[in-house]
Amino acid sequence: MATVFIWHEDSFRYVFHSWPGPVGRHINRIGRHTYTLSKAMAPKRTGRLASQIEWQDHFIGGELAMDVGTNLGGRRVGYAIYTHESPAHIIRARRAPNLVFRVDSGRLIVTKQVYWRLRNPATTGYLVKALRIAMRSG
Known about the structure:
2 domains; two-stranded antiparallel sheet; two-stranded antiparallel ribbon; 23% strand
């Protein structure tokens, strides 16, 4: 017995390329959950960063897309990228000719300066953490 496959373009478009379809609803649910979590997880010294996190759904080349973050609607929070991905800092020897320290392997390092990438779990990667939590629950 032969199998007959009938392609129904309107149904396909509804399921995969429309916001009311199941894929669109799923993306919207994950995006909104990520938005809510990222506002809660953002550093809150003044509250300005968390207040400017927003979400935006749109199409990219006919595909559904959801953006969550700052700087979406033209508003700029200049320090947002630094709270998410901390920049590298240069640490130089000031009171001695060299910095001396041991690395995890036990090797002794002697140098005049090091580039150190600050990784503070309380402030870095809150958008990625929010997305991972939303994806697990959603």
